[in-house]
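Lecture 7 notes: from sequence to structure.

We start with a single chain of 190 residues. Read the sequence below before looking at the structure.
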Amino acid sequence: MFRPQNNTDMPFQRNFGGQFGFHGSFGRGRGRERFMRGRLNMTILETIKERPRHGYDVIKAIEEKFHGFYAPSAGSVYPILQELEDQGFVASSQESGKKIYSITKDGENELKENEEKFSDMREHLRERLADMGRFRDLTDEMKQTTHFMFSKLCENGALDAGTMKKLRMAMVNFKSEVEEILREQKQKSL
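Now the structure, written as tokens:
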């Protein structure tokens, strides 16, 4: 469980408490939030170290690192960028009307000081994301199906109880079919 520490000498220690493992699902919701809470500062700083970036580019780069399974919100990234700048870990400049962030010497030192602490987390992420990357086509198909379903629901407006029951049953049947397919695969591999 994440427990903030009040150690002002080590800003990232204050933000990076907790376990490095995943707790629940990695998509949207509580599991992802518990995982990312406090680790986003370091991830943003590492992303900016790769090359100077504006805020939206930081978001897209992190989404790419996570193979599309996680993208931080602008409401999370921009305050952290400001905090990193206030701490002297990044500096900003204006280019083509955009605020571009680059890492400072202090930011590089902060990453070096915390390198060992986060190497286990990074390795765990690499292993998990490699597994997730194999299922990218399936997750893309699920996203498309979800979008299709919601667009059809919006088109039709309010649904009667009978139609809602049929839709719920279709979802139950879908889950049952997936479980059966995976159960068969597991038996084949034994």
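The helical segments are 11-15, 30-36, 40-50, 55-65, 74-86, 105-133, 136-156, 161-189. Keep this in mind for problem set 3.
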